[in-house]
Sequence to fold (112 residues):
Amino acid sequence: MFNLKNAHRESIGTSFHGITIKASANELMILAENNGCDYTDNSGDVYEKSQYDFDFKTPEGVVFTVYDWKEYREFDVHEILRWHVGGKTENASRIGLKELRKQLEYVRDYQL
Fold:
């Protein structure tokens, strides 16, 4: 189940295609840690366009990103936000969304 990898610089060129998911930063951090993936944590820096950035790559090589967008405020890691799911194509974002939903279900059922 935990088969995502770090996308690192491969996420350059991804963009938002209207795909979002509701989750907390805590849930996404657990998901990233389950997969051994790094993430950017700028929490509390209300001047950043995003405070958390997660870059993932599926075993099939599909790269997608997950990030809060323009909250411009401090928020608790347990607060549910609407996160952008970016990809190089809309289809990549949809594949990312599907993977996120599956893994977040596990996090919510067994790790919170």
Notes: The longest helix spans residues 90-110. The mean pLDDT is 96.
